[in-house]
From TrEMBL:
This is Myo-inositol-1(Or 4)-monophosphatase. InterPro entries: Inositol_monoP_metal-BS, Inositol_monophosphatase-like. It comes from the Bacteria. Keywords: Hydrolase, Magnesium, Metal-binding. The lineage of its organism: Bacteria, Pseudomonadati, Fibrobacterota, Fibrobacteria, Fibrobacterales. The keyword Hydrolase applies. Pfam families: Inositol_P. It comes from Hallerella porci.
């Protein structure tokens, strides 16, 4: 496949959907709880509609899975994984830490492999892109993970409390935060995987831990982080499988094994 030409189209779609969501953020018509701990807005649905329309028009043979609509189409070796607004709670409160994630994965005998990613952060005016073996970029400029080698000097981020199966996840988060706080300089919690993943890729964070993830949360950032020179695995150190409910770790690579150890 011609990754760069496909990436350019994904970038265009992410930017268009992001602009629309940013416009709608000023006057949201609908905010509803889709479960006791998570919300969906009219902007999520409109962003999703825009992306699905373009993908179906330009890549009719590809599968599509999104956070809100689920499996729109199945059966292809190539599958688009979409999060129309990642960080919807932030978005619904006017916090600019949210984004639109579009990733293309190849389904192989060894599992799903991200090959193209475009993440738009409209509130920050940034677009992150990556293609397999092609490097990672923000607004066209190449990015690289940090060179922090001393865990005690690391700044890390951890996923939100009160999501999904909250009793189990919050208990795990408490343990994660305690271990990270004991071993690192600072522990952050930005409330959006695309923010924390891209910040890790550009070296602003040294690591990011997510206790409960879904493919749409991490497919894009997994490619961007690794193409920026970092590492992405389950918190056990095993390869990411891109299945529902995974616990995942993203880092600059240098600190990865140390992070795995403190999270055991």
């Amino acid at each position: 496949m011609k990754f760069l030409s496909i990436l350019e189209r994904a970038k265009v779609f992410a930017e268009e959907a992001g602009r629309k969501a940013l416009e709608m953020q000023k006057h949201l018509e609908s905010i509803r709880f889709k479960n006791p701990k998570d919300v969906v807005t009219s902007a999520d649905l409109e962003s999703e509609r825009i992306i699905i329309f373009h993908l179906q028009e330009e890549f009719p043979d590809h599968s599509i899975r999104t956070e809100e609509a689920g499996h729109v189409k199945d059966g292809s070796r190539y599958e688009w994984i979409i999060d129309p607004v990642d960080g919807t709670v932030n978005f619904s409160r006017g916090i600019p830490l949210w984004g639109v994630s579009i990733a293309l994965v190849e389904n192989t005998e060894n599992g799903a492999v991200p090959i193209v990613a475009a993440i738009s952060l409209p509130g920050l005016g940034k677009i992150y892109t990556a293609s397999k073996n092609g490097g990672a970029f923000v607004n066209g400029e190449r990015i690289h993970v940090s060179e922090t080698a001393d865990l005690s000097k690391a700044i890390v981020s951890n996923g939100d409390f009160n999501v999904g199966n909250w009793e189990k996840i919050n208990a795990q988060n408490l343990k994660n935060f305690q271990r990270e706080a004991e071993n690192c300089t600072r522990v952050k919690c930005y409330g959006s995987a695309v923010i924390e993943g891209t910040f890790t890729a550009q070296g602003s964070l040294d690591a990011f831990v997510m206790t409960m993830s879904y493919p749409w949360d991490i497919a894009g950032i997994a490619l961007i982080v690794t193409e920026a020179g970092g590492k992405a695995t389950e918190i056990s150190g095993d390869p990411i499988r891109f299945v529902d409910g995974e616990q995942v770790l993203f880092s600059n690579g240098i600190l990865h094994d140390q992070m795995v150890q403190i999270l055991k």
